[in-house]
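Re: How this chain folds, sequence and tokenised backbone to follow
Notation: Tokens come from a learned vocabulary of local backbone shapes, not from coordinates.
Start of record: The labelled sequence and token lines come straight after this line.
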Amino acid sequence: MTTIITKPKIEISPDLLSKLETQIHEAGQVVVHCILSNASPSGMYMRIWPTTHLYPHNSDHVSELIHAENICYYPAWQEMKKGDNYFTLIFAGLPKSCTVFDLMEDCKGSMGAFCIMNIPRNETDVYYAHL
């Protein structure tokens, strides 16, 4: 089960964080930092489909995935090491009226799609998800 973390313990370079926050606020983007715990000693492989979007409730708007950091795009696969793996997804901004949204990856019927439902919107539009 996926959970949204309200007070994550992630260390990010203060210089990089400041630069990213400035860019996010200027562009009105939504950032989702993901933590994937991999317990498999043999490793696992992941990727993100470019058809991953944010869907605000009570709206026809769709926020497209703009950039993925530390995870590769379909059709390539990326090996995830044992333990915690971190990646970031950056989406186009949500409408101002949005208070709750869903993150859904459309994998054209393939199994294993990311799906995080009912994410309450916050004032920073920066989120942390433990997958």
Notes: The CA atoms of residues 94 and 120 lie 12 Å apart. The radius of gyration is 15 Å.
